[in-house]
Amino acid sequence: MRHLFINRGCIICPTLHFDKESLDFGTTALGFSTRQDVYLHNLALIPVAFTLTVLNDGNEVALTHEEFARSHTKPSFPNNPREFEVSPEEGVVASNDSMRIKVIYTANIARVGHTMIQVDMWDSGSHPVLLPITFCGKVTPLTIVPQDITVRFCFLNYPYSRSIDITNNSDIDGYFYFIQQQVTEDVTMICSFSKYQGYVKSHKSSPIDVTIMMKDLGIYTLTLK
Questions:
Q1: pTM of the model as a whole
Q2: In the structure, what pLDDT confidence band is assigned to residue 8 with cuts at 50, 70 and 90?
Q3: What CA–CA distances, in Å, run from 190 to 74, 178, 183, 223?
């Protein structure tokens, strides 16, 4: 006698889920970083391996304000920066457990952008989980107050001191850098600063002393940049 045994069921692939629907990094000054955390949840009864990728991100190391500040020769922003750092980029979430994912956005391009974090599971690109990301990189608008420094009458080879403020009226922190003047025999006006670079917090000012010395007769103008 034969017995027929029929086993019925539904095979599903355990997946991971984020605890947030999206990440919004707001506005970040170029060279500065903003961090957010998100959790990956595994509600399945077995561990799930994953790999994280930020879609359409660059492949060059992003430039930070710390690196710019300590560099003697000032570097430029890369053409194709990798602006997002995800840690860990891969791992295994145990059954009925969660794992915290750290996402750091380092702005290197002035733009408003949208991208996604893609979660691939089981070493397969099928059925990925996506987390939308919104971000904005912006150059901090700094102003010099006063905009003009006038020394109406002065002696040759005598230093005159004036004060200026680097003002940041925006909602993001900023960084300033003055290009140091190259003094040669042909230079008729020498200008030096008490500091050539520094940080200016949001809605704050940074005072700087300026020393000016004339080397020749005449009326001259020096543009600060």
A1: 0.86
A2: low
A3: 22, 14, 7, 12
